[in-house]
Structures are given as structure tokens and as C-alpha cells.
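Title: Prediction job returns without error message
Component: structure pipeline
Severity: low
Priority: P3
Assignee: unassigned

Description:
Job completed but the reporter wants confirmation the result is attached to the right record. Sequence as submitted:
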Amino acid sequence: MNHSHAIRTLLIGAVCLLFNSPRLAALPSPALRAPRAALLFGPASQPASGAKLTFRRIFKSSTPEFIEITIREDSDDALFDIRQLDEDASPAGFQVSSSLRAKMFSLAAQLNHFNAQDLDVHRKIANLGEKTFRWENGAEAHEVKFNYTLNTAATQLLQIFEGLARQQELLMLLERRMKYDRLGINDALLQFETDLNRNLLQEPQRALHTLDQIASDSRFVEIGRQRARALADRIRRQS
């Protein structure tokens, strides 16, 4: 037996001992066992999350003083936080449709994802609150701040974000009135109707569940129930 053949025989023997060892036999069956590459190199890395868009507005002495909305390119799930600055952060979830998200991310792309952008008008005008657009995708992030802009794409994106914020404000108002001030429900519905008439609400169909609850609950004043029913019917027709 030559030297190389002896070495090969020793290696084959070592491999056989390894695969017949009690430690390896204790592993789950091949159908349940992790792939061999995973055993050697650890769990496979997770795919990168989709891009995120965040809008923030800080406007002291207004109501609300703080608005922040974050949407994801790959999910209907979004977050909003609407409050006064002296209140604790309390982000909550809501839904944004894929069609509206596509429009928003398209506008952000037109603005080069806010990279090296100067959107502010740079004129002496009233303070309208500091606004921030931020785009993130993995480790890459860009943001831009402005008080007032004349940029068409930025204005459209701002209107969408502010419409989503107003929509969530009104839904929170309706839910508070339902719990704590049933006699005030009609006034809250009037505010909702006014903004609906002005086309400020981006996805009014998100309010259908709340409107249906009001319309069917005899504890609310009849004029409020009728208004809720009429608003729900109108939104369904328009949708």
C-alpha cells in the first residue's frame, strides 16, 4: 500500500466514524433536519425589508403639535402617532392600500428619495410647521426638511400624508365620542362629512366599520345614526 492510498483509507475511516457517531444519530431525521449548509454556516439570512416612507410634522402651539406617519412599500400595515409634544409617544397601526402606497413611493422616487433635495421655498412666510420626509431602505436613508414648498411632487406627497393624518384624527375623534360622549357623535360626523366633501380624506372606506357601528347602535341620537348611515352609503357608492 503506497503512502497516498494509506492517507485516503484513513480519511474514509474518519468520515465513517463521524456519520455513525451517537451525536450525529441524535439529530432529527433528514426530513426535519436543517440543510447541511445551515448546520455549517448558521441560519440563512433573512431577505431585506422593503423601503419605508416617513412623514413628520412638528408645529408648536397647534393641535396636534406632532404628527408622524410611516408606511412600508411591501405591506398594508402602517403606523401613525398624532399628539401634543408634551404627551408620550403612542404609535398605533392602521392600513394603507397598495395603490395609494404605490403613488406615494412613486412621488418619493421623483424626488430622488429625498437625496440632496432642497424643497423649502426660502422666503419670509409664516411658520407652518417643520415638515420632514424620510426614505429608508436597509442601511440607506435620506431625508429633507422644509416649512413650505412649491415643488409639485412634494406638495402632492404632503397632501396625501396630511390627508391620512386627518383621516386618523377623525377616526380617533369618532371612537372617543362613541365611548365617552354619545351626544357629541353628530358633531364629530359633521367634521368627517366636511372633510369628505373637500376630498381631504385619502381612504374614507377605512371608516366604514365605525360608521356602521354608529348607524346600528340605538344608544346614539337618531340624527347621528342617520348621518352615519348616509355617509357609509355614499362611501360605498364612491368606492
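Comment from assignee: result matches the submitted record. Confidence is low (pLDDT under 50) at residues 1-7, 14-48.
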